[in-house]
Write a structure and sequence with these properties.
46% helix; elongated
Length: 136
């Protein structure tokens, strides 16, 4: 009689082991999926930060030009596959809150275009600048 109790106990332990491994497998799969998604989000954040830095740098470079000339300049950023279109446009009929016309104000726009995730992406930044800002 003790023998049958003992063999039933062993079978029960085997079933517990199988259930424990199944629960552990499900938990490990969930953890691996969560890690994969976190890595994808971190990669996206790093890409967004890189694009933001490139745009800010190009805008700062255009802002620091001593003389602004209207037009669009297309440049590529190294081997990144990012194309930049920098546009300088004279703003006509811009007035301050007192109704005075502001002369020689320019709109500076930098647009970045790149191919990612199977489609074209783009982002842009812009600002205004007084034309004679850096002239003596």
């Amino acid at each position: 009689m003790t023998r049958s109790l003992h063999s039933g106990k062993r079978g029960f332990l085997l079933l517990e082991m199988i259930l424990a491994l199944a629960v552990f497998g499900i938990a490990a799969t969930g953890f691996a999926v969560a890690l994969h998604r976190m890595a994808a989000v971190a990669g996206l954040a790093q890409s967004e930060l890189r694009i933001t830095r490139i745009l800010e740098s190009a805008l700062d470079e255009t802002l620091s030009l001593p003389v602004l000339e209207e037009g669009t300049v297309n440049t590529s950023v190294g081997e990144t596959g990012i194309e930049l279109d920098t546009t300088v446009k004279l703003i006509e009929d811009l007035q301050n809150e007192d109704g005075q016309v502001l002369q020689e104000m320019y709109l500076l726009t930098v647009e970045a275009k790149w191919f990612a995730n199977g489609q074209w992406q783009n982002r842009s930044v812009d600002t205004w600048r007084y034309g004679r800002m850096y002239q003596p």
